[in-house]
Design a protein that fits this description.
The complex is a heterodimer of chains A (103) and B (412). Chain A has 103 residues and is an alpha+beta fold. Helix content of chain A is 27%, strand content 17%. Chain A contains three helices and three strands; from the N terminus they run αββαβα. The N and C termini of chain A lie far apart (46 Å).
Chain lengths: 103, 412
């Protein structure tokens, strides 16, 4: 049995996924709502997108899945995209808000 | 679940010609602007020829290319047959050239050009209508696309009938139907398409959220009512109905501007990049053209109506299109050349994939030119109109260079 994977490891892995339009990673954008790791090290990522009409929808979710799979010990990854609560800029980290001029 | 897979995305080679050829048509059209004087009228056959060169060759060409990319995104389904687009642009380009030759030099050629344009648009409509039939979630944008395509069909049929009238002697009152043709195509198709698409694109690029969408919903319904009323006013030949319809359409665009203000107020992304500045000039031009359009409807002299049309077409339509080219082309290039490399090597950001200085030159020359030439039209100054037109033409050269630069970014 491999070591228990932590939420933080998964979040750190997803930080490598950059939204090419805004240039920030999905975690600092506040697009990753939750990460659930079960006893078998199966990971579920609950995320949203900054807009419903995002043409990169499927690619972004695939990149998140690929990134989470790079964490040692992860068995499987499921990515769920939700629209509630709707994303807004207040969910982003301060460096993002500052760079976009929203702070 | 809404997914736009790679299979839904049209190939880059299919969409690229629409933008490259569209920008070249724009440049050629602007080069020809100085042949007009400030006293031009929209009934002059030379102006009608130029308008077709500009609107078919540039505006419709770019809109069709953008729709090839955006339809799967906004309708959440794949194209019925994206391969149709391979024949749309050649037919539209050749048909446009023949139409312009028909208007300017040889009226007998006009029906042939009109027929090619008609076929290209029917193919576009066939794909869009068959694609719409696959849609399950009926949003405002979906309704907009359905309505706009109906108006486009009516508009091009009226246009083709007029082409037969001018070039082949078919009995149609061109003077009576010209304005209906303009309203159907510019109001019913181009403006409504912009209204529908902007509800997707402006919040996406500006990161706007939580705004009230009632104004744009009202704008859509009022605009549809106005275009239908204008058509009815033409059929029954009622000046009063046409006047009321024109007021209705102006009101719809006013509601739309209100919506743009609400989206602007809630935007999280405050950077003033080329896209944002282009939107400011575009919507500023629309705001300026609306009261002039109202005055023209009330019977003001032709130069007022021409100035309103100038700011609507060269300010609003053009800047909305050019501004979005700096977003859409880098995205297409990135999607084609860099998305497979994500996670394997460092990939560029979209903001690094357009030529900033060149885009700035395009923006400033074009914006200055639109204003100077617009003042020339308003005050009937040939010198100012031609000077402004020259600025617009220089801006167009920079647009073509920018489009070429973006298309070649990262090409091996």
């Amino acid at each position: 049995m491999s070591e228990k994977v932590t939420k933080e490891q998964v979040y750190d892995a997803i930080r490598k996924v950059i939204d090419p339009e805004v240039g920030f990673n999905l975690v600092e954008m506040g697009l990753i709502y939750d990460v659930i790791v079960d006893d078998e090290n199966n990971v579920k990522v609950i995320m949203t997108l900054s807009t419903r009409g995002c043409p990169l929808h499927q690619m972004l979710t695939q990149w998140v899945k690929d990134a989470a799979m790079t964490v040692p010990g992860v068995k499987d990854v499921d990515v769920e995209v939700v629209w509630e609560p709707a994303w807004n800029i207040s969910m982003a980290e301060d460096n993002v808000k500052k760079a976009l001029g929203a702070l | 679940m809404f997914n736009v897979s790679r299979e839904f995305a049209p190939p880059f080679a299919l969409i690229a010609p629409f933008f490259v050829i569209g920008s070249i048509f724009y440049m050629v059209a602007t080069f020809l602007l100085p042949m007009f004087g400030a006293d031009a009228s929209h009934f002059d056959i030379s102006v009608v020829g130029w308008a077709h060169l500009f609107l078919l060759g540039f505006v419709m060409m770019v809109i069709f290319g953008a729709m090839a990319q955006l339809v799967p995104v906004v309708l959440e389904v794949g194209h019925f047959s994206v391969d149709f687009y391979y024949i749309i642009w050649p037919l539209l380009a050749i048909g446009t050239i023949l139409m312009v030759i028909g208007f300017w030099l040889a009226p007998g050629v006009l029906p042939y050009g009109g027929m090619m344009v008609l076929i290209s648009m029917l193919i576009f409509l066939a794909d869009t209508i068959m694609t719409l039939r696959k849609v399950e979630h009926i949003s405002l944008t979906v309704k907009t696309i359905a309505a706009t395509n109906g108006f486009l069909l009516l508009g091009i049929l009226v246009g083709f009938a007029m082409a037969l009238g001018i070039g082949a002697g078919v009995g149609i009152d061109v003077n009576k139907w010209l304005n209906a043709h303009i309203v159907l195509v510019l109001g019913g198709y181009v403006s409504l398409t912009i209204i529908g698409m902007s509800l997707i694109l402006l919040p996406m690029f500006g990161l706007s959220h939580g705004f009230d969408e009632r104004p744009i919903n009202m704008s859509f319904k009022v605009m549809v009512g106005g275009v239908l009323a204008y058509l009815a006013g033409t059929v029954i030949d009622s000046q009063v109905v046409r006047f009321l319809a024109m007021l209705t359409m102006l009101g719809a665009m006013g509601l739309y501007l209100w919506q743009i203000w609400l989206i602007y107020k809630t935007r999280a992304r405050k950077e003033n990049d080329i896209w944002f500045r282009s939107m400011v000039v575009g919507y500023g031009s629309l705001a300026f053209s609306l009261p002039l359009g109202l005055l023209a409807s009330l019977g003001a002299p032709e130069n007022i109506g021409m100035t309103a049309a100038w700011f609507l077409v060269m300010g609003f339509f053009t800047f909305l299109i050019s501004g979005h080219l700096y977003k859409i082309i880098p995205f297409l290039v990135w999607f084609e050349r860099y998305s497979p490399l994500v996670g394997k090597q460092k990939v560029p950001m979209l903001a690094d994939m357009y030529p900033k200085k060149m885009a700035d030159y395009q923006f400033w020359f074009s914006a200055a030119g639109v204003v100077i030439a617009g003042i020339g039209l308003l005050f009937q100054s040939d010198m100012m109109f031609k000077a402004g037109a020259a600025f617009v033409a220089v801006g167009a050269v920079f647009l073509v260079i920018s489009v070429n630069w973006m298309m070649k970014f990262g090409k091996q």
